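Quarterly update from the structural biology core.
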Amino acid sequence: MPQKQIIVQEAVHYYFLKSKDFNDEDDSPTITLFCRLSRETTYSDLLHTYSKTDTFWVDIDELKYEDAPEKLKELPDQIFRYAISEAVFKDLYKISMSNPKELYTITPYSIKKS
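Predicted structure, tokenized:
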């Protein structure tokens, strides 16, 4: 008789990712912005560990450099990934629904930044 596999939820982590890239390949330089709010849930059974990532909000935007606000021009060209608490995640999600472009310039209170 086969035994049922017991799967246990190990951990839930919340992430905020944002990136900025300056592109000067064409006649018209652009800034590409990307943001994502996601939740990663880790499960395990007796032999394996599994992860599932759910994206709650994602946005990508490309602006002409000349049209971009100064605060966006001044941001470094990097990718930031913040491990955040559930409370901060919920607050950022609320902002994404009302004023999503503001997330490109926010630095959230984070547990860990990479």
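The radius of gyration is 18 Å.
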